[in-house]
Amino acid sequence: MVHNATTGRLKTRNLVQCLSVLTAVLLGSSAIPVDAKMLKVEKDELKLGFIKLTDMAPLAIAKEKGFFEDEGLYVTLEPQANWKVLLDRVIDGELDGAHMLAGQPLAATIGYGTKAHIVTPFSMDLNGNGITVSNPVWEAMKTNIPAGPDGKPQHPIKADALKPVVDAFKAQGKSFKMGMVFPVSTHNYELRYWLASGGINPGYYSTNDTSGQIKADALLSVTPPPQMPATLEAGTIDGYCVGEPWNQAAVFKGIGVPVISSSEIWKNKPEKVFGLTDEFVKKYPNTTLALTKALIRAAEWLDENNNANRMEAVKILSKPEYVGADAAVIANSMTGTFEYEKGDKRPVPDFNVFFRYNATYPFYSDAVWYLSQMRRWGQIADQKPDTWYDETAKSVYRPDIYMKAAELLIEDGEAKKEDFPFGTDGYKAPTAEFIDGITYDGKKPNAYIDSLKIGLKAGQKLEGTTVVGN
């Protein structure tokens, strides 16, 4: 009889578990190995997708540190060409799950773009992005930015400094173009938020025009993350919003200047999630729990002891099968610093957050924020009641799975109860920690949308290229 490699591994593993338990019993020890509590997973061989960005780190760490195998899972990680291909392959079942943009499960579930019920039991990280502009744009912006005591530009840099540059482009009959990674990406929404906070309209979407450039002062378009620096260098775009290491790559190549990090636009903003089809979660509940357990452990490892493991993580991520960028470029942000202009490296200890601040918990309020931005810019064509936002968030974000995984880790001795938000209703407290100081309350999305100066308001919609309604 021929056995495949996985069957052999599992038999060996089961034998080791049995011998370990037997030894503990014979020695009168109560320290039964954690493996003895391993879930009976319904599917043990999995293929998971990712895009080559540093925030895929929990997946790489869960594999490299053996956290997947600790849960009886044998995982293949496979880089994907772009976010659309990644989502399509999860929906088609070619991938069992994937590193996803926070907006992807929400957009798919409500039918914006591809229609499919995607859920997430795990938020992969906070922060992690930046906005970079070309050298000529930076030189023009600098005259509008006050200097700090050290003579360097004062941060955070608001889009107010960019507005005169965009206005000058318009006066010359030129378009100001910026790249972002996907229409429902966090990058699209935070770039739009930053621009709008400085009086620059990033444009609207409509049912007939999905370019997102209706009435735009700055034209935003999709560029795959690894291609951002080259596209900027070629002059095709004047700036972009992307995750690491592609902002720092512009600094290393001397072709652009990151002007702001995403944590300065919205402090501790949710970034990526781990996405699965609802069908997968229902068919393989224990496998889903096991995946979530392994990812929580990986996230905790990435942040533990004040980021002590980050340099080891950098070496892992620099491998060609993961991010494949130079370790020095990845380290610039992963180790708690961020370089703006060449030589202007500043401490940003929370540039990448993987576990602290309950980063891994899938908060409903995070989902509602992304839905509010879809409505603000016309991707959700008509006004929805606050209850719709709540119900949609709860159909996609699955903190029930997350907390069950957390409870199992606590039982296993692999986590502490105080590290998880037991007792939460899934909504964070209202916060004004945005670049414009406007308060966001996830339980009142319509009031929040109406409080924003640029964007659709209650009762408004696009008819052709015209905003109509109250």
UniProtKB/TrEMBL annotation:
<keyword id="KW-0472">Membrane</keyword>
<keyword id="KW-0813">Transport</keyword>
<keyword id="KW-1003">Cell membrane</keyword>
<keyword id="KW-0997">Cell inner membrane</keyword>
<dbReference type="InterPro" id="IPR044527">
    <property type="entry name" value="NrtA/CpmA_ABC-bd_dom"/>
</dbReference>
<protein>
    <submittedName>
        <fullName>Nitrate ABC transporter substrate-binding protein</fullName>
    </submittedName>
</protein>
<dbReference type="GO" id="GO:0012505">
    <property type="term" value="C:endomembrane system"/>
</dbReference>
<dbReference type="Pfam" id="PF13379">
    <property type="entry name" value="NMT1_2"/>
</dbReference>
